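Handout, page 2. Input:
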Amino acid sequence: MASLVQNDGREGLLVDWSFWINWYENLLAGRPQNRALLTDIALIPDADWAKGPAHVNAMIAEIVEKHASVDEIIRQNPYAHKIEVDAKCGRLVASSRNAPDLSQIEAAIRQALKDFTARCRKDKSANRLGIQMNTMFAPVISDLRRDLRRYRSDPLTMFDHVSLAQRELERIAKNEGFSADGPFARLVDALETQKDDICVAVPDVAETQRNRLAVRVARYTDEQRAMALRLCAGMAADSEGVLHAAAALAIQKILDPESSEEETKSAWYFMTAAIPRGARAIRASDMKEASPKQAKSTLQKVVDGADKLAKLDKGIDAVQEFGTEGAGWVTEFWTQVESGNFYGLLG
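Output:
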């Protein structure tokens, strides 16, 4: 085999041919190629190609590096990336997370429960809403504290019991009209964050959630699929860097009928892990989320970047038309979750 790096006599520069060699060897062996990567390379402007192999291959190396990190997020564990708002650019960004210790997670959940109770008891309003919430939620909180102690060495069961407690709290809040109250929203967000941390700390829990999600996705209605893609497009419109690229790639993998079952499964897993965390980050900040129009525009760009529009699932038509104009994707997300129309997210 020829050297991966050769001297360009015309420019006196080193040229890295590793991409082309790998591409050709995969082609000869009949191995699947990264179509999203090839599409981005094909979209390099003609002016750059004209500058010679040293210039264009350096650009290709950057594209390959970007896709490697994007594929890693899509394919493995998206919970291992922290999603937050970059105040300088007003966009969602993702950064790698360190795996926390289970004892730290248990302590954080207990602290969140303690903080919620303290906020409720401090309520001095005329309707004493905080006192009412504390009374209504006390049995569930007591059971959760017991379960944390009982299952501290069984992370999957701990995750499941936190999820069960969260859903019970949400049902009570919805029935009693507490859903929009500040202390309750803080508590739910804290529980969601700690559930994410369990998935980071114990990869087996994340893999179990991934397999459970595959069953839920198979039961999605066309409307739920369209809403999920719309929400992911909204997140893409609000993000930059690897998170933006990962959201766009997830949409493309789902819409492309030629994607493998594993690719599609991983894309759905990424979306349902990332969308609620992106929504929570925006809701906790002063950032204004993307409008439906912006989300649709992002989705269309993803479709236009595919090889052939005719190959894509007809679900794109539903996505283009679905949803109420004027409502941001974050608002739509919480509305769908509260109504129960979009199961599979939030545990």
